[in-house]
Amino acid sequence: MDALYNSMYYVGAGALILIGLYMVLVKANLIKIMLGISFMDTGLHVLLIAIGYVRGRTAPILSQALLEAGEGPPAVVDPVPQALVLTAIVIGVGVLALGLSIAVKVYEHYGTLDAGRIKGLKW
Amino acid sequence: MRRASALVLLLVLAAGLAVVLAKIPFGQDKIGVGNHYIEKGVTETGATNIVTSVVVSYRGFDTLGEVTVLFAAALGVTTLLFVERPQERKKREPASLIVATGSRLLFPLIILFGIYIFLHGHLTPGGGFQGGAVIASGFLLLYLARPGQTMRRKNLSAAESLGGLVFVVVGLLGIVFSGYFLQNFLPKGHPNLLLSAGIIPLVYIAIGVKVGSELGRIIGDLVERD
Amino acid sequence: MIVLQAILIVIMIAAAVATSIFKDLMNAVIACAAVSLIASLLFYMLDAPDVAMAEAAIGAGLTTAIFVLAIRKTQRYEP
Q1: Phi and psi at residue B193, to the nearest 5°
Q2: pTM of the prediction?
């Protein structure tokens, strides 16, 4: 049980990142590629928050009870990864909106969403 | 061929991730610079939500960069999808009675809830980005209830520009009064009150208005191009 | 508590695999919303309420809406 608890968050987040990478590499539909990018973002956020977790402590909001608790610094989890992930979530939605509007324009111009048949993406 | 090489690459990456993540113990105390923010956060910035004080005050420059990136993304969406004179759209049947009446009741409540979230950002979990996303969901509800509605571009653009301008002006006033960009120059007050924590409520109100109108404009651009 | 979190992680990975397999793009987008919702629950259980609110409002609400609007203007089935 202890080995399961120590590793399940890392395994879950890593699996989500790898599934997203598989969808970007193998799928041919542009919408599925954007779904893969979104999965990679979500998996990375879960991994960052899981690294910043400390067992036995509480959320980093200093309510009145925690302020008057007594000696020593308050027992809260790490606030720095949460601030970084907050920024990353908003940037992820911006990237997604721009990518999907490019996909809409590509469909209007070429008539297909298949990445193998769009001439501009070949190299 | 493509699938096989992709699977080999994924196996190599999985092995690399496993080797690296095995050295990071889960749940143990490895806080580095966060200790300084936890101990001195309330006395130096006045906000009792430590994540808010990190996002706005200690690392406020990163938030300015993020607001700029969101603005560039909204600009890109409008450039790609905007039509000057929309050709006549297909007649769509109006929404049912429950959706139309319910949206008229719910839309002011959703806006009020979003304003509450970003107004209390320095006391409870919340802040500018969450409140802005809730306000954008209110706009989405209006689009679902009234097919054929167009948004007023001028008002949304004015709100978005005003939000960004207030953020930069507050930062420049920090240089005028204290010598650093985005320095906390208003009095900090007593913690856990609404009027405390210096410039943090002002910055979060500006960010909340800006993000709400920006995401609403992105959704409006995607809906109206038909 | 530990068993509950393990079950949630397994459901999240199953929903992600289902997104990759579905041929109808509307079904794939609904499965993506399920992944975002369970990620928001996991953020709450890891003592991060700010991030949970942001992921629930932005990930499970606005991202799904943007995907559905983009699919309506292009094709619905992956060939």
Answers
A1: -105, 160
A2: 0.91
